[in-house]
């Protein structure tokens, strides 16, 4: 049976994060559920001031069922500490809730594959439900996929780092209007040339500090 084209019909009419997370486990809004181990929903303080949004779960997140627990998550933890943001008081999630990957011709190591626009849009109802539930002051979109999930397919992250933005009015069903900041995905720091990683990490930290400064006091 073909998968549905959107997660919308799977999202319950509730602001309870536990109920949303439970419902997401049976989501078949796109075909990614067919090969992923499980849905990886967001995690963190239910009424966090800051919501951090990445692209999708990676290999370790797919196995653990928790967001940002792999190498990129460890680097994010380090960057948050440097920016004086307590991860335990934030909410961390991804634009896409299932791991998309390819397998090499030889070996069994699953290789990350960037979600397509159709998959990002199909999964977006879950992200919107998290926004309406958590109601953060600030949303930090990490990486192009996360940024385009909420800001539109033509949004260019590099042109808007260090700016206080708002989610476009296209999402008229949203009952929240947080400030938005954008930055690179932590995994891009790890993938970069070794000689550039310190500068890239410092840029990530600077963006996170900027986002923290947007929180309503």
Automatic annotation (TrEMBL):
InterPro entries cross-referenced by the UniProt entry: UDG_Type-4/5, Ura-DNA_glyco_family4, Uracil-DNA_glycosylase-like, Uracil-DNA_glycosylase-like_sf
CDD domains assigned to the protein according to its UniProt record, in alphabetical order: UDG-F4_TTUDGA_SPO1dp_like
UniProt keywords, alphabetically: 4Fe-4S, DNA damage, DNA repair, Hydrolase, Iron, Iron-sulfur, Metal-binding
Ranges for domain Uracil-DNA glycosylase-like: 41-205
SMART domains: UDG, UreE_C
A Pfam family this chain is assigned to: UDG
Gene3D superfamilies in UniProt: Uracil-DNA glycosylase-like domain (3.40.470.10)
Family, per entry: Belongs to the uracil-DNA glycosylase (UDG) superfamily. Type 4 (UDGa) family.
Record protein name field: Type-4 uracil-DNA glycosylase
Species assigned in the record: Mycobacterium deserti
């Amino acid at each position: 049976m073909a998968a549905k084209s959107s997660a919308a019909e799977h999202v319950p009419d509730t602001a309870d994060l536990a109920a949303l997370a439970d419902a997401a486990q049976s989501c078949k809004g796109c075909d990614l559920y067919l090969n992923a181990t499980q849905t990886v929903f967001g995690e963190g303080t239910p009424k966090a001031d800051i919501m951090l949004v990445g692209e999708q779960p990676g290999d370790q997140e797919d196995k653990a069922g928790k967001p940002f627990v792999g190498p990129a998550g460890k680097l994010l933890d380090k960057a948050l500490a440097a920016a004086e943001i307590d991860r335990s008081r934030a909410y961390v999630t991804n634009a896409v809730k299932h791991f998309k990957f390819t397998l090499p011709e030889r070996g069994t190591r699953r290789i990350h594959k960037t979600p397509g626009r159709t998959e990002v849009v199909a999964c977006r109802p879950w992200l919107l439900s998290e926004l309406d539930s958590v109601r953060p002051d600030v949303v930090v979109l990490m990486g192009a996929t996360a940024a385009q999930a909420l800001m539109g397919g033509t949004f260019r992250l590099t042109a808007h780092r260090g700016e206080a933005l708002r989610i476009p009015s296209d999402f008229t069903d949203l009952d929240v209007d947080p400030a938005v900041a954008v930055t690179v995905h932590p995994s891009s720091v790890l993938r970069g040339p070794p000689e550039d990683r310190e500068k890239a990490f410092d840029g990530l930290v600077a963006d996170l500090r900027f986002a923290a400064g947007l929180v309503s006091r």
